Amino acid sequence: MLAESNVIGYGGFGTVYRLVMDDGSVFTVKKIEKHHISSDKAFERELEVLGSIKHRNLVNLRGYCNAPSAQLLIYDYLVGGSLDEVLHGKLI
Fold first, then answer.
1. Which CATH number is associated with domain 4-87?
2. What pLDDT, on a 0 to 100 scale, did the predictor assign at position 55?
3. How far apart are CA 73 and CA 16, in angstroms?
4. Residue 36: what pLDDT?
5. Which is deepest, 23, 37, 63, 78, by most CB within 10 Å?
């Protein structure tokens, strides 16, 4: 469930959640709010880039949902934290 208690971060276009499935698998879900036209462009750009490039330093895009109220991008969950945290020394 995408609840406030599952929020792990915020971005320019939306909120990032930690999602645990019934079978115990864990994913990261980025919910892009559809407030303006640039959110559609950001969603399409991320789908294009992460859907076509596979690299050990990039998180795997597992799926997406393009609904009228929001767009969801589903990624593998990274246990070690976000790239922002690593780059800016927020992890211990």
1. 3.30.200.20
2. 72
3. 9
4. 63
5. 78
